[in-house]
Amino acid sequence: MDLGLENKVALVTGAGSHTGFGKGIALTLAREGCDVIVIDKDGEGAEKTAEEVKTTGRKALAFRADVTRNDEVNQAVKAALAEFGGIDILVNNAGASTPPKAFVEKTEEEWKSDIDINLRSVLICTRAVLPQMLARKRGWIINISSGVGTMGLANSSIYSAAKAGVMAFTMALAKEVIGQGVNVNSVSPGLGDTGFLRSSNVLKTAETPPEFIKHVNADIPVGRMTTPQDIGNMVAFLASEVSSDIVGQIFDVDGGKIIKF
Ligand SMILES: NC(=O)c1ccc[n+]([C@@H]2O[C@H](COP(=O)([O-])OP(=O)(O)OC[C@H]3O[C@@H](n4cnc5c(N)ncnc54)[C@H](O)[C@@H]3O)[C@@H](O)[C@H]2O)c1
User: pTM of the full predicted structure?
Assistant: First the structure.
């Protein structure tokens, strides 16, 4: 199947993590023929991903920017547009969580951090990129949410609420802009062995211990965690010409962890 992604320009936020979903998304889109703009608050990580994108033969640009900051995002998007002329695909992937803690113990600074990085960032990046999509009557926005936004996760109440907000924003914006040539969908990953997991309070290790992986895998119907390639595949499909009848949907890519009617 030809996805028709050749020569599209994609911007992927949070693609600077070596083990992260964002890098998997960036490289999958590049292999399908997209040029890729990488944004991450980790500038060095963003550069490394951009270098890997270039090995596929596609163009890449890296920006160090904090996606919770309007000024930094707008500056990066402006520079990317000057280089590429347009952005066809936006993948709002950057995300993080404050350490797991009972709701009553979470400080308002922690509320703000979880909401800013997981929900407000999606609004900021979408506002920066959407106007030129509407002007060109062409665009694909894919928001990375999380299964915890559907199921809820104890001790991660604000993160769960922010991810549910991303899903609701996806549905509402899709209804608003589909008639203007812009499609919006969301991918909701299952647990992945990324920087997110390794920096969480549970692990705090560079490598995830095998016994932890075994324990987690036992609870997933397909028997393994979600990989950056799994997420990259779904994002590429949703950003393609072949999925144009799919609008405003949330897709669980999680090995069967959430199966709903
Ligand atoms: N790993 C999982 O189990 C899992 C499950 C469901 C959803 N997710 C979601 O997947 C997405 C990707 O996370 P990941 O698991 O690949 O983690 P990761 O930590 O490997 O990657 C996240 C990237 O986002 C960047 N980032 C964080 N805050 C930022 C900011 N303010 N500005 C710019 N960049 C910022 C980080 O530097 C990092 O490169 C996130 O939205 C996360 O919530 C992850």
Answer: 0.98
